Amino acid sequence: MATRYFNVLKSVTEDIKPCVATLKGSYPSWLRGRLLRTGPARYEVGSTSYRHFFDGLGMLHCFTIEDTERVTYSARFVQSKTWRDAKDSGRIEAGEFGTEEPPDPCKSIFQRFRSRFSLPRRTDNCNVNVFPLNGKWMVSSETSLNWQFDPETLDAVKRHDVARASGLTSPKSGLLILNTAHPHPAGNGEIYNFGLSLGRNTAYQFMRMHLVSADSHSEEVDMQSDVLCSIPVESDISYFHSFALTRRHALLVEQPLKYGMFDVTTMAMRGKSFLETLRWRKDVPCRLHVIDLETNRLLKTVYETDPFFTFHHVNAYEVPEKRQIIVDVSVYPDAQIVYDFYLSRMRGEDIDCTSFPPAAVRRLFVSLGEDANKLIKVPYEDISTDYNLEFPQVNYRNSHGAKYQFAYGCTQTHSKLLFDSLIKLDVDSKEEKVWYAGDGMYPSEPIFVASPAKKGEDDGVLLSAVVSDDPEKQGFLAVLDAVNFKEIARAEVPCRMPYTLHGMFSQSLN
Questions:
Q1: How far apart are CA 35 and CA 85, in angstroms?
Q2: pLDDT tens-digit readout, 401-452
Q3: Which residues on neighbouring strands pair with residue 191, listed in sequence order?
Q4: What's the rounded Cα separation, in Å, for the pair 263 and 273?
Q5: CA 245 to centroid of chain Cα atoms
Q6: Which value, in Å, is the radius of gyration of the alpha carbons in the chain?
Q7: What is the Cα–Cα distance from 331 to 312, expressed in whole angstroms?
Q8: What is the pLDDT of residues 127-148, one digit of tens each?
Q9: 121: left (phi > 0), else alpha (psi -120 to 50), else beta?
Q10: 200 φ, ψ to 5°?
Q11: Considering the entire predicted model, what is its pTM?
Q12: How far is CA 172 from the centre of its chain?
């Protein structure tokens, strides 16, 4: 069977030095800054291969928009311990989301057997998202190890251990091994995030994170994380990738993609990856945990809704007059999409995956009412119509946590697998606009950058890194007018760009 997406999923083996892009179209005069992104870039090391799209060695990417006539692009591998070990040994040295942990050749058979009855080692292969924290830039994955990096050079600065920063460092107190890849700002440059601690008191941990000076004689910083609320895990643990935040509440969806303590403590012994411990429980409803941000208290009310799977929340906001929270989520009917990202399936080398499942935008109506020990069934409606919508984005600075009108994301129009188009959804009227990237071209999530004029919620541009599966075609940074959803400019890159997952725009070049 012919290999699909050969160019998109081809490993990058070297950093990409800064290069000048060829500009076409007209850039807004006010658009200045850096688009910072990350994603998996290397899937093979020597004779060993990662099995899943989410596993590849992480690479940071930077589009620097200096003025209307100059855009540069560069990329550098995240200089993690995982990357260094693989580079030095010429083989994969750490387990990832869908790739099992390799045996340590330096240990005896008995040592290997004994070490495999333990919690899995955390990888620091940060390949999912970037975010600012107190003026510094971080790159993260779903583990509790983050890397601080220089946004200009993309050099690694320091590794930060969220477990140590939170004081959750042992199975007795709870070892924080996971956190979401999508934190939200908490004010004063700090962030909120959810994590998972395993051990005697397995719990979902709601945290507020910030940086402090390591000492008075240098610019080095340490991470500190305050656990604001712990949500005990009652039975099996749910997989989660993101959470919702309004101005007054944080919401975590406990979805029916589950795993148990025994699964994760024995997966190395059984030669299993983390993904292989997950099980879809089709008859288990989704449960919503709601935390009051003023008191940091978990509401007593138990909220449940029909089962779905999600990676990403679109937005959430309060409706005070109805004592209601609106939560918009990009949902799938089940978790099949997670398994469709196995590289063998995407490439069509093994079990052929002919199409990704549809992702709909679902609106949940969470009624606050009297906080009491009772069960409330959460009603919902699906508000997207003709197209899928994944990798959702909004005008974050203006609309996050507030009532909004427009969502943006990736969709498919000609392809049934990788997203080949971008979409704008009016969540009120359900009107949709679509931009097609072209044959064999695949855009990343569209990042909204607001115009200084701020004439409306959609007054600005959308930036998307478009990769090419055709070696003869150049990838490019697309610039779309967010109002009419038409391309106004592009910056064509004179080298092959790998596909990226998430990123943010920094309006500062300093």
A1: 29
A2: 999 999 999 999 998 889 999 999 999 999 999 999 999 999 999 999 999 9
A3: 185, 209
A4: 10
A5: 16
A6: 22
A7: 8
A8: 999 999 999 999 999 999 999 9
A9: beta
A10: -60, -35
A11: 0.94
A12: 29
